[in-house]
Amino acid sequence: MNWNGKRVFLTGHTGFKGGWMALWLQSQGCELCGYALRPPTTTNLFEDASVDRDMRSVMGDVQDAGLLRATLAEFRPEVVIHLAAQPLVRRSYRDPLGTFATNVMGTANLLEAVRHTDSVRAVVVITSDKCYENREWDWSYREIDRLGGYEPYSTSKACAELIVSAYRNSFFNPADYQSHGVALASVRAGNVIGGGDWAEDRLVPDIMRAFAAGHPVRIRKPRAIRPWQHVLEPLRGYLAVAESLYENGIRDGESWNFGPDPADAQPVEWVLRELAAAWGDGARWELENGSQPHEAQNLNLDCSKAAARLRWRPQLRLSQALGITVDWYRAKLRGEGMRAFTCSQIRKYANPASANAASGQS
Known about the structure:
Strand 2, helix 2 (45-48) and strand 3 form a beta-alpha-beta unit. Strands 3-2-1-4-5-6-11 form a 7-stranded parallel sheet, sandwiched between helices. The chain is built from 14 helices and 13 strands. It starts with 6 loop residues before the first strand and ends with a helix. By secondary structure, it is an alpha/beta fold.
């Protein structure tokens, strides 16, 4: 699909995943409007990479239904991508009501605004792999598996999935597509890594902060296994879904998993060793003592549906993803222009054949 000139409304563009998505969409020539709260951390990708340079940027809360609806109606997008969320498990223990308000009612507010904006053709709602009822299985979760949640964050994402289903059935029903013209899908990804993530209580940002300061990083659950992947991997999947909805209508208006190769579902300790080796300079870690709130120990995604129907598969092995991530933080420490550096990583990822050819000629 040619994204050039397409009007795209993106929530959460001031966040980590949203910043990368905004830059990728800008590189495709979209007419882009972002809607989000101000960046959640003092150091952030949004400012480091001047994410708002070639787009319209609206600072607003998805809990503000009136402003959200007015902004959407004024911009009149064709594609809506909903990334805005409270994304942290441990913060959800401290602020469960805020987490539910943002992740549940924020999603409802966005879909209600879409319902009253007749320009919209495709909607992609990003939730999480944690929307599944995690039974600590050794096998991977499929899109048809049961939703659920142990703590506020995962529960809020399961609720967001139910809201998507309710709006699809009630207002954007596939049987009535000719009358409403909206194709709606939800997408689920695992733990993403990449440059520009400075969130609290998240593994790679904690590691990078500690390594940059010359301190040992404190790890709470070294044996926990996560489906690690570079942020660009699921974003490519989200864009593939958006393209299909725009071009093919309701055909792929379902839920979709995007995760790494099963071999790259590694424990925290493995990731830490790889990052320490890539960083060098005596990087080290130590175990954090004391009781910790519950977090899933093992959670993997089955992405066979995306592979079969969207031709989407991971491009990067985990060791490559970690290397690219370290490169970004190293460039930041060197004082490089991070917009250009981030865009170059997007370009190389999106066009690997061109990047390899250029490398071979140099």
